[in-house]
Design goal:
The protein is mainly alpha-helical. It is built from eleven helices and two strands; from the N terminus they run ααααααααααββα. It starts with a helix and ends with a helix.
Length: about 200
């Protein structure tokens, strides 16, 4: 039975994928185009899950115009190491995403990158933060105005929050830090507000 399922996936994956991707400019961008070509040969349920994540990611990017496409192609030609890091961050995060909401946030961050709202280093950091964050806490950080100090404290390791230490007093009463959103979290929130609404 699994063999039959694999044959169905393999036989229909290219047709399925091409029918899901309407934006022809996306297919011409090296980072995305390479992934599209790799996905066309899906052979397992895990690969199909990855295909669905990429499909959802692409559906949530929005339209890529000609100037954005040219910029991505030019950027990818400048520095192969940087391109590899960028592509790895993006698609490793997609592959490891345990929620379509994470994929949606990643698409929003990528759209912000395309619109020059964040740079490639910000995008890599956001990829890392999305990848290791617990989804319920990530949703609160991205979408809610007020985030509890407890959630901020838990998300210092992800890079979405930072600890701010107070000046010490003579009696040593102010030793506990305060927590606030990191710059990466602020940029992800701003991208969400701008590109999702």
């Amino acid at each position: 039975m699994e063999e039959n399922f694999r044959n169905i996936l393999t036989d229909n994956s290219e047709v399925l994928f091409d029918s899901l991707i309407d934006n022809e400019l996306l297919k011409e961008i090296p980072i995305i185009g390479t992934s599209i070509n790799l996905i066309k040969g899906i052979k397992s349920i895990r690969d199909k899950a990855y295909l669905n994540k990429i499909k959802y990611f692409l559906e949530n990017i929005g339209e890529i115009n000609e100037s954005q496409k040219k910029r991505l192609i030019e950027e990818s030609k400048k520095d192969k190491k940087r391109r590899a890091k960028f592509g790895e961050s993006l698609f490793t995060t997609l592959e490891k995403s345990d929620s379509l909401t994470k994929v949606e946030y990643l698409a929003v961050a990528f759209e912000a990158f395309l619109n020059l709202d964040i740079d490639d280093a910000d995008l890599r950091l956001i990829c890392h933060a999305i990848n290791i964050s617990y989804i319920d806490e990530l949703i609160q950080i991205v979408e809610l105005e007020n985030v509890s100090e407890q959630i901020l404290r838990y998300n210092v390791p992800s890079g979405l929050a930072i600890a701010v230490y107070r000046d010490l007093t003579v009696d040593m009463t102010n030793t506990q830090p305060d927590y606030k959103l990191s710059i990466a979290a602020e940029k992800l929130r701003a991208a969400w507000k701008k590109h999702k609404f």
